[in-house]
Write a structure and sequence with these properties.
By secondary structure, the protein is an alpha+beta fold. It has helices spanning 3-6, 51-76, 80-92, 110-115, 140-143, 148-159, 164-182, 185-190, 193-217; strands at 14-15, 18-19, 222-225, 227-228, 231-234, 236-237, 244-249, 254-263, 266-275, 278-289, 297-307, 312-325.
Length: 338
Amino acid sequence: MTNSLHRLTIAGSLIGGLSLLVSVFATNGARQPPASRAGASSAAECSCSHLEALQTELRNALRLQEAMRNKIPELRALDHGNSLTQYKLFAENDARNGLEPPPNYDKLSKADQKALSQYDFYVEGFDLYDPTNPPQGRTSAQLCRLTPEAESKLAKVKSLAACAGIASAIQAHEDVHTQSCLRGFVTFFKRNGADRAQEEVEAYEVQIKMLREIIARIRCGYRATGQDGPVVYSGVICSLAEPFTVTGTHPMFTFPFKFVPSSPTAGMMTYGTSGSGIAAAGGGPYVIEGADTDAPRIVVNTRSTASSAAATTSGGGTATIKLVPLNNSGECQPNQPR
């Protein structure tokens, strides 16, 4: 099958909170005149001022990943040609349901808004008369290289990212498609719609992981709040990627809960305290949940021991500490250690 009948977008990127799942059957396979090659993104490093944009990107990536995942069984049941057609229609329409525009999207020029919706993963091999039978001597590295036009468009999209971390997450998504292509161009080109959707799920997984880590790493900070039984939580956390402490206040004790991250989204908590003739200690693993929502939280699975002159007891349970983003409150200086 020639490229003129078979051209489909391989990748969909989430740029500035706007889906670039633009799957297009070209009416003719000729390459359009390439745009001038754009430079790398010059966006600033992500900080608390970019939190809204980062969270929008993350929510949209999660929605797109879920949409693709749910579509795979339906596409898998179709023959090759129909699966490609239905993948195209889904990517252009239903997959976009519920997506949020990025902050200040309405302030972009019409040209920039258009740029965010026109990138597709288009490589040199797609321009062959018959991509399923490339000439001898053409390597996957050559066949899987972005065309100058596609490279320019991707650079433009990355330059419109709110901060450098978003641009890096976009590139990481596209790198999944590049690596897939490099494993064998012909196999890559011949994939059906279900396989393409599955690869999108995998590419969004990489993008989602990176966005979550960026959100957790920036120095916006959070105020710890909430309560479990008689224990009330308080404190300011300037980075979830570095050791931090949350104070737990009990009628009989003050608990300094000490958190040591193993990543920006997980780690270990320990505590030790005493008062009124009782000593208590414990800890356990924790995770950060809801980083992409308005209600992030630390969830700790704890084991505790309390000792007094009369007895020693032990037990366990789950503690939930609510996190309220500080944004630009000034309590944590953006991107500076506390």
